[in-house]
Amino acid sequence: MTNSDTGRVALVAGGSGIVGHSVAMELERQAWRVRTLARRPIAGIETITEDLANRDAIAAALRPASDTTHLFYAALSPDPNLSVEAERNGHMLGNLLDGLNTVGAPLGRVVSYEGFKIYGIHIGANVRTPARESDPPHMPPNIYLSQRAQLRARASKASWDNVALIPDVVVGDIFGNPMNIALVVGVFAELSRELGIPLRFPGTDKAYQQLVQFTDAGLLARASAWAATEEKVSGEAFNITNADVFRWERMWEDIARHLGLDVAPPVPLKLAQHMADKGPVWKGIADRHGLVQPDLSKLVGWPFGDFIFHTVSDVISNVNKIYEFGFKERMDSTKSLIAAIDSLKRQKVLP
Predict the structure, then answer these.
(1) What is the CA radius of gyration of the chain?
(2) C-alpha span between 272 and 232 (Å, rounded)
(3) Cα 210 from Cα 325, distance rounded (Å)
(4) Which residues have C-beta within 8 Å of that of residue 281, sequence separation ≥ 6?
(5) Which backbone phi and psi does 269 adopt, to 5 degrees?
(6) How far apart are CA 29 and CA 259, in angstroms?
(7) Quick one: three-class SS letters along the chain?
(8) End-to-end CA distance of the chain
(9) Is-cis flag, bond preceding 140, omega within 30?
(10) What is the pTM of this model?
(11) 247 Rama sector, left if φ>0, alpha if ψ -120 to 50, beta otherwise
(12) Does residue 2 have a pLDDT over 60?
C-alpha cells in the first residue's frame, strides 16, 4: 500500500483489468492509498485475490481493507448466457458491498462502471444516438441493470452513495484482458505483416463506415478520481468517452500508416474462427522478437474483435452531462489507440 496524504483509501475491484488497472495507477499518482481486488497479484500494489462469487469467504478476505473509503467497481465475470452473466455479476457486487459492511469499512462512495451495453446494443438494438443517460432501460437480463439493482437494494441503509460511469470501447495498454481493442488491432496488424498482406479491416463495409467512439483508459481513470471526490455528482450516471467520433475507414488508414503497412478494402472475417490457425505464426514472431506471450490463444480475445468490427449502426454517447458537471477532458481517439499500441510494443507484447 502506498503512502497517502489525502485520507482516501481506495479498493479497486477488477484491478487486473483494462479499467481497474488504469484506475489503480491513476489513484496512486494522486497519492491515494490503493488496494486492488483481482484474480492475480498486481506488482507494486497490495492485492486481495478472493473470488467475489464466494460470499462466505469474501468478508474474511476483506479484513485488511477495513479502512476503505472509496470502492471502484470494475470487476467482470463474462458469460455467453446473459441471464447467468447478469445474476453472477450482480451477486459479486452485492457480496463485496456486504463484505465491506461486515468489516466496518467507512465507505463513502462507490464508483461503478457500466458500458454501452446498458443501451442494448449487444442484443441488436438500434440505439438512438447520441445515447443519453436518461434513455429508458430494456427488458432484462442485463449485467448493468443487475448491478444497479444490487446498489439500489442497499442504498437506503448505506453510508455510501454511488456514481456510475458509462464508457464505451476502452483503449488501454495492458495484456491478459480479452476486451482490449489495441491488442486485437496490434496483433492482427503484425500477423498481416508476417504473412505479407496489406492491413485489411476484418469487418463489413458498413461497419467500416459507421460512426463509433472510444474511451481512453487514462482519461477514464482521471474521470474516476473526479467522480469519487466531486460532491455534486452523488447519485448520478455519466457517459464518458474521448468526446470525438470516428469511422474505421479513416482510423484504419492512420493505424496502417503508423505501422508502415499498406491497406486494402475490407474483407469480413469471423476472427474467432479465421485466426484459430495462426498460433504457430504468432509463436514464430514471438520467438524471433522475444515477446512476453508466445501463446496467441492467451493473448487476444478475437470474439471481442468480431463484436467491434461488425457493428452496423452508429455508436455515439452524449457526453454533455459530464461536461456540465465539470469534467471537461477530451482526447483524440486515433492518438489514443496509437499510443496504446506503441506502449504494448515497448512492453514487448507486440514486436
Answers:
(1) 20
(2) 44
(3) 29
(4) 191, 194, 195
(5) -125, 155
(6) 31
(7) CCCCCCCCEEEEECCCCHHHHHHHHHHHHCCCEEEEECCCCECCEEEECCCCCCHHHHHHHCHHHCCCCEEEECCCCCCCCHHHHHHHHHHHHHHHHHHHHHCCCCCCEEEEECCHHHHCHHHCCCCCCCECCCCCCCCCCCHHHHHHHHHHHHHCCCCCEEEEEECCEEECCCCCCCCCHHHHHHHHHHHHHHCCCCEECCCCHHHHHCEECEEEHHHHHHHHHHHHHCHHHCCCEEECCCCCCEEHHHHHHHHHHHHCCCEECCCCCCHHHHCCCCHHHHHHHHHHHCCCCCCHHHHCCHHHHHHHHCCCCCCCECCHHHHHHCCCCCCCHHHHHHHHHHHHHHCCCCC
(8) 33
(9) no
(10) 0.96
(11) beta
(12) no
In the numeric block, which cell numbers belong to residue 151?
Answer: 446498489
> Residue 324: CB partners within 8 Å, gap ≥ 6?
none
Pairing of strands 211-212, 246-247: antiparallel
pLDDT tens column, 331-346: 999 999 999 999 999 9
> Which CA distances in Å does 295 have to 187, 219, 279?
12, 30, 7
Tell me the percentage of the chain whose pLDDT exceeds 70: 99
Q: 117 CB contacts (<8 Å, ≥6 apart)?
A: 142, 143, 144
Q: CA-to-CA distance for 337 and 342, rounded, in angstroms?
A: 9
Nearest to 310 by CA among 222, 224, 206, 228: 206
pLDDT tens by residue, 99-142: 999 999 999 999 999 999 999 999 988 899 999 999 999 999 99
Cell digits of residue 314: 452508429
